[in-house]
Amino acid sequence: MTDRDKQVSLSENGDESERILIVDDDPSMRTALMETIKRLGYSVQGAVDGMDALERIARFRPWMILTDLRMPRLNGLELIKEIKARAPHATIVLMTAYGTIETAVEAMKLGASEYVLKPFSMDLLERVIMNLRAGRDEGIGTGLPAQQTENRAILSQDPGMVRLLSTIEGVASSQATVLIHGESGTGKELLARFIHMRSPRAHRPFIAVNCAALPDGLLESELFGHERGAFTGAVIRKIGKFEMAHTGTLLLDEISEMNLTLQAKLLRVLQEREVDRIGGRDPVSVNIRVIATTNRALYREVEQGRFREDLYYRLNVFPVTVPPLRERVIDIPLLARHFVSQSATRNGLTPPALSEAAIAHLQRLVWKGNVRELENVMERAVLLAGHGPILPEHCPLERSHEAMAPPVRDPHPANGSLWEMERDLIFKTLARVKDNRTHAAKELGISIRTLRNKLREYREGERPASINAP
Ligand SMILES: Nc1ncnc2c1ncn2[C@@H]1O[C@H](COP(=O)(O)OP(=O)(O)OP(=O)(O)O)[C@@H](O)[C@H]1O
Ligand SMILES: [Mg+2]
């Protein structure tokens, strides 16, 4: 947690991401905007001009500032410059009239995220806020156009992979649902972003939901959103990821981990193209392109009754399998050099040379964690090598490999202490990775399913007779 975050959570204003400041010298416009935004569930303040706005930003700390252009004292453009200097992370939206469109472009260069042309409907405003919110949650759209933050190159010389990339490029421009299958760390998410960036939706939101990272109930409200008061604790209306991804792309990461009930609800969304907010009256229609990833063979999950067959067919429109790194060793030198230079640059070092011996060594390894593991190993190698060339001894595999080997089990745990140790370890790991189950499972070297079962076991207070009870 940074100092800034701390201040925010300690302030009495509540969650920063719920606050919006309106800046407009026209009182009736200001009031109308404030009411609309309040109705959306945000906490809102109004400023009468640029100077007033600066004072309020310091105290109120809004995540978003919606400002008019022509105002006494400090006008919209001057205000944007000041905000960028004082609160660079705030999202700025400029309201502008038709005749001043050049000024809007100027505003974007100064750091505004978006502009709306007057007169605009309150529906449009809601959409704009929703999209900015979505981008912010994903860490994109913070002033930079999505492309600059997201367009990461996919490197490969492997003929199979190159062929896969060109087929994907073809399907990107369509609306087709893409199902990406591959081992952990093979680049599934990278591919999903690539598809989005090459699609006509490139400038619309890209929203990723990790289906394994959240407990079932939370995942549902994350996806579907809820109305204010839909259940205890639902104090504001929450827009779900389906709606956030409207006009853009929704990535359903680790889809195999979604439970059967939610699978049925997802199927309905994909068929009807509409979403029922929890506690909502009318369905909301959504226009989304779906990409799903899985590291399990989904048809096997269908066979075993863990995944709905109808949903499988709906997702499997354009299936893609990303080969594991050990099946494309030809890519290893290319990727290794790339990661070496990336890591050196990040650390302000001159990229060290990669010795032939190191390359040969890297090509012999199994890479259970695939490209991500190679990335981590090379990052460490740069630091270990210092100024000299990178040698095999600078490239030890990650510890997770040892953890992936079956743990030594004690058939007679003394007083369940092993069980307790395991439980403590799991909770500590979860705390460290901020409850991200995917990361926790990876660190612990167990599958997400195992982690989930363990957590259920702890919740139900069950204590197995032995630690390796199935
Ligand atoms: N071909 C590639 N070229 C460059 N970087 C790559 C390539 N493939 C993967 N990477 C990098 O490797 C890392 C892992 O990729 P990514 O997160 O897309 O994998 P994943 O398959 O989604 O993994 P997981 O199943 O663990 O979620 C990322 O940092 C990504 O940028
Ligand atoms: Mg992933």
What does this protein structure show overall?
- The structure is a single chain.
- With 470 residues, the chain is of the alpha/beta class.
- The chain has 4 domains: 3-122, Rossmann fold (3-Layer(aba) Sandwich); 159-322, Rossmann fold (3-Layer(aba) Sandwich); 330-398, Helicase, Ruva Protein, domain 3; 408-459, Homeodomain-like (Arc Repressor Mutant, subunit A), CATH 1.10.10.60.
- It contains 21 helices and 14 strands.
- It has helices spanning 3-10, 27-39, 50-60, 76-86, 101-110, 122-137, 146-150, 159-172, 188-197, 216-224, 241-244, 260-272, 298-303, 309-315, 331-346, 356-364, 370-385, 400-404, 417-432, 437-444, 448-459, and strands at residues 19-23, 43-47, 64-68, 91-97, 114-118, 178-182, 206-210, 225-226, 238-239, 249-253, 274-275, 284-285, 289-294, 318-322.
- The strands form 4 sheets. Strands 2-1-3-4-5 form a 5-stranded parallel sheet, with helices on both faces. A 5-stranded parallel sheet has the order 7-10-13-6-14. Strands 8-9 form a two-stranded antiparallel ribbon.
- Strand 11 and strand 12 (284-285) form a beta hairpin.
- The model is unreliable at 1-13, 138-151, 400-416 and 464-470 (pLDDT under 50).
